[in-house]
């Protein structure tokens, strides 16, 4: 193979600029050509552009589910007879704070002599009666702590009835009566327009059913004199006078917890039944 001869080429900037300007000034064969376009018939192999806004594909927000309206019980107006008749008759201060507990419909068990108790609405006791009591009073009424759920247990076989002989001569056997669980309670008095104030009763919550009741000796005598009957709608109001001491001297005496049971009139009962 022959040797290639290397030649030295010098770069001239002025000549390079002249060649570039000559190429730009030279007209192109297709420069300025008019391209016909028929709008009625688009060109072959050309699809029209369907531009769709991006917000058309954006996910629409899901409508929020309407919340169920909260069941709010309207607190009735404080009856005028409370401060005009009830508080003065009980020897209590006229400016005493009175709290609405709840409304309920009187049932047959509230008037039954075998039951011998008046049941209070659980929601009103927890929301309105508990806040006005002291920790000691709550403990006495078994309302200080919420009852724990009881674990399930297997049902035991019933025990055989224990028979106790009265006398050897008679030879008769009777069933021995079992005593129920002894419940304590917070001293309370029930008040009614017709019956007045009851004697000292007990307010307590059963651990088994979590029901809050008022019971005690003399309850049925109070119920027989009351103005309400079965199926009547009653409003329950609570008030208690606290002791006031000044310079070691008792100025205002402590009172029992009072529960005023007021029977609604016929119009209020009819509205309650329609609701």
From TrEMBL:
The keyword Nucleus applies. Keywords: DNA-binding, Nucleus, Transcription, Transcription regulation. One of its GO terms (molecular function) is DNA binding. It comes from the Eukaryota. The keyword rRNA processing does not apply. One of its GO terms (cellular component) is nucleus. It is found in: Nucleus. InterPro entries: DNA-bd_pseudobarrel_sf. PANTHER family: OS05G0237600 PROTEIN (PTHR34397), OS08G0290200 PROTEIN (PTHR34397:SF17). This is TF-B3 domain-containing protein. It comes from Urochloa decumbens.
